[in-house]
Design a protein that fits this description.
The complex is a heterodimer of chains A (106) and B (248). With 106 residues, chain A is mainly beta. Chain A contains no helices and eight strands. Chain A has a single domain, classed as Immunoglobulin-like (Sandwich). In chain A, the strands form two sheets. Chain A has a five-stranded mixed sheet with strand order 2-8-7-4-5, with no helix packed on it. Chain A has a three-stranded antiparallel sheet with strand order 1-3-6, with no helix packed on it. Chain A is elongated. Chain B folds into two domains: 131 residues, Cytochrome Bc1 Complex, Chain D, domain 2; 85 residues, Cytochrome Bc1 Complex, Chain D, domain 2, CATH 1.10.760.10. In chain B, the strands form three sheets. Chain B has a three-stranded mixed sheet with strand order 6-5-7. Chain B has a two-stranded antiparallel sheet with strand order 1-2. Chain B has a two-stranded antiparallel ribbon with strand order 3-4. In chain B, strand 3 and strand 4 form a beta hairpin. About 4% of the residues of chain B have low confidence. The chains are: A mainly beta (106), B mainly alpha (248). At the A-B interface, strand 1 of A face helix 3 of B.
């Protein structure tokens, strides 16, 4: 699976609210479709997304089957300290993937 | 004299679509915004995959970067395909060119024309030509390929008995159901279609139209497909490349 595309500033001023944007490569198979011989295609979506900042959870999302393939997520975070932002997501197969970025607060 | 001038004008007017209009303008503001922002354009998932593949040597072979160097050297390449292969003189499109390179220079197995790896490489090469005008060679072996492509474009096909030109030329800008009919240019492929929820080739898009008019689609590697691709490239000559485009 291709790596996600993440867009976030490298450095921000203390107290500033900044956006993190992430585009995740995932088929988000809804479970509603059938294959060419009529057999249902099992659901396989990202069902949970968590973002931590310096170890503290700052954003969490539950995903449902109506979300399109390759989901794009934007959320805002308030800059507190320089640290690592870790984004983790889990799909229906139980597979978990994460990406981390470093942010410098000035 | 005036009749002669008019005749000359008709003869030298070139492709019937005088000023081609990219399907980008028919895609709606939200979709255009998606295409314009590289971090929101899902096509870049494949572009990144292709850039990685460019650097990675296939087992026992040489990486693309081993001969071509940085992928930035591919600027302008995607804008001039389909073209004749200089070695054999046979017309190839970009996917065909990649597979020729793999077979001749990289001693690697061919990639499936519409597999993720091929689409990723084609997207990564294509994005280097973004903004450059699409301009293919029209001389030598390409002349007859383009002529056959135009003939196909104007041939009625399928149970609905429609030609490409009847929708994408005569009725471009009108509506088919809720959707605006675009002129059907090929300047944004491989492109991400929201309808497909993935990236796809021009051949896939042509197949969708062929099944739409209830004709039997050409195989992905059929000569007809290449002829149509060549004609579409000439018909949209001058349009800036948009790879990877986003369409509804």
């Amino acid at each position: 699976m291709a790596r996600p595309l993440i867009n976030a500033p490298k450095s921000v001023r203390r107290g500033e609210v900044f956006d993190i944007r992430i585009l995740i490569a995932h088929p988000m198979e809804s479970g509603q479709r059938r294959d060419d011989v009529g057999k249902p295609i099992p659901r396989e979506i990202i069902n949970r997304f968590v973002c931590t900042y310096g170890g503290e959870e700052v954003f969490r999302a539950e995903f449902f089957p109506a979300i399109a393939a390759n989901p794009f997520l934007t959320f805002s975070v308030s800059a507190v300290e320089s640290g690592v932002i870790v984004m983790t997501w889990t799909d229906d197969l139980g597979a978990s993937q994460f990406e981390s970025i470093e942010i410098t607060v000035t | 004299m005036r009749a002669a001038a008019l005749l000359a004008l008709l003869l030298f007017a070139g492709p019937a679509v005088a000023q081609p209009r990219s399907g980008y303008w028919d895609a709606g503001p939200q979709v255009r915004a998606m295409q314009d922002d590289d971090t929101a354009n899902p096509g870049f998932l494949w572009v990144e995959q292709g850039r990685a593949a460019w650097q990675a040597p296939p087992p026992g072979g040489k990486a693309c970067a081993g001969c071509h160097g940085d992928i930035a050297a591919m600027r302008g390449v995607a804008a001039r395909y389909p073209a004749a292969d200089p070695a054999s003189g046979a017309p190839v499109d970009l996917a065909g060119r990649i597979n020729l390179c793999r077979a001749v220079n990289q001693s690697a197995p061919k990639l499936a024309r519409e597999g993720a790896e091929m689409l990723a490489l084609a997207a990564a090469i294509g994005v280097e030509s973004r903004g450059l005008p699409q301009r293919i060679a029209t001389d030598g072996p390409m002349a007859s390929v383009i002529a056959r492509g135009e003939a196909l474009f104007r041939t009625r096909m399928g149970q609905l008995n429609l030609s490409c030109a009847q929708c994408h030329e005569a009725r471009a800008g009108a509506r088919l159901g809720g959707a605006v009919i675009p002129e059907g240019h090929a300047n944004a492929y491989p492109e991400y279609r929201l309808e497909w929820q993935t990236i796809g080739s021009l051949a896939r898009r042509i197949r969708a139209c062929l099944t739409g008019v209830r004709a039997e689609p050409f195989a992905a590697d059929a000569p007809e497909m290449l002829e149509l691709e060549a004609w579409l490239a000439l018909r949209g000559a001058g349009l800036p490349m948009e790879t990877p485009g986003v369409r509804p």
